[in-house]
Amino acid sequence: MHSRAVLCALAFSAGITFFAAAPAPADDSAASIAAGGLVARRETRIVMAKEVLQISPSKIVVDYDFRNDTNEAVSTEVAFPVPPYTYGPESPDITAASFSDFQLLVGGKTVAYQTEAKATLNGKDVTAILTADKIDIASFGHLRQPDPASGQMQTPDVSRLPQAEQQRLVKLGLFDAEDGWGLWTVHLQYHWTQFFPAHSTVHIQHQYTPVDGGELMPIDTLKYVSEHKQPTGDADTVNYELADVQRLQSLCPDPSFLSGLIGQMVASQPDSGALAQPHWVDFILTSANTWKQPIEDFTLIVERGKPELEKDQNVVSFCTPQNAPVKKLDANTFQVHLTNFVPKDELRIGYFDVPQPTPAPPSPGRSH
């Protein structure tokens, strides 16, 4: 076997190829929400001595060692900024979009944090209007939110207001007149005051459930991308959606990986139009640049996760920062290690649920 073919076969069986991170929305996709790490507010004296970033489809855990090399203690605001989000029929669940399960530990102990929520509408700050009417901004006025104690659906904040005030809010464009949901954009962050003693190291961990993106792609899209380094833009000559091609091409998949995936899709669905459904988790690596650069010791740990169907195989695919080598820790875990690392790009971890061929029935008279 040709050496290139050997390498491609090994890469596919190991379940890993390397993708670039470049989110792109599409009409038939589920959008990923790219959150990231901790951000220092106007503070660059603290060194990120170590960062261990663990990513799986169900959880992101980030461990940091922050070091203060100065002769003075430093007290500064630290934040976890939540990407802006809206509400609507195609938007992620409010609980997911707000990363409401965010957890913070300092020195191994759970620490409370503050929540700051602002609202904008068409670029205008409308926080004061909603606050005056006691409408919770982050949950769009507790819209279709269960009560933490009883589990029953809460009464929306706007329904407690006089009819005239409700109509005023609709005229201002803050609420949809027909369906009643809030139309503003939420700008949310969790933040706290962190103390860094002089000449000492503080260990901080945060974790949350990621909001992944995904999209169905026909086999023709995979074939086209495996044969072309760049989309031609001639949508009339091939059977594909240009947006799908651009999304898949932006992941920089290896042609041999796509060929292997196509083969398994065809074998598992010989009598139907085969569809691939990649999904991915995005992470904002450049948030680390708000601290004193570089990250002295950086480790990325990627877990394969479980496919939706037990019979499928989960293949993890990502582009390594600075094209660093990948070490396979075990069958389901991969590691990238860098020193003196200054992130230039964001990170996307892609997952493919690869269908396995259905075994052929045994021939009569033969034992297996």
Could you write a compact summary of the structure shown?
By secondary structure, the chain is an alpha+beta fold. 17% of the residues lie in helices and 34% in strands.
Give me some keywords for this one:
single chain; 368 residues; alpha+beta; Immunoglobulin-like; seven-stranded mixed beta sheet; globular; disordered N terminus; disordered C terminus
Descriptive report:
This protein is of the alpha+beta class. The chain is 17% helix and 34% strand. The strands form 4 sheets. An 8-stranded mixed beta sheet has the order 9-8-13-6-5-18-21-20, with no helix packed on it. Strands 1, 2, 3, 14, 17, 19 and 22 form a 7-stranded mixed beta sheet that branches. The protein has a 5-stranded antiparallel beta sheet with strand order 4-7-12-10-11. β8 and β9 (109-110) form a beta hairpin.
| Strand element count | 22
Mean pLDDT: 82
Spatial order of the strands forming the largest sheet:
9-8-13-6-5-18-21-20
Distance between the termini: 29 Å
Structural class: alpha+beta
CATH architecture: Sandwich
Using the alpha-carbon principal axes, give the shape: globular
How many helices in DSSP terms? Answer: 7
**Count of structural domains:** 1
Could you give the order of the helices and strands?
Answer: HEEEEEEEHEEEEHHEEEEHHHEEEEEEE
Helix content: 10-25%
What top-tier CATH class fits best? Mainly Beta
Radius of gyration: 24 Å
Low-confidence stretches: 1-29, 360-368
Largest sheet: 8 strands, mixed
Estimated share of beta-strand residues: 25-35%
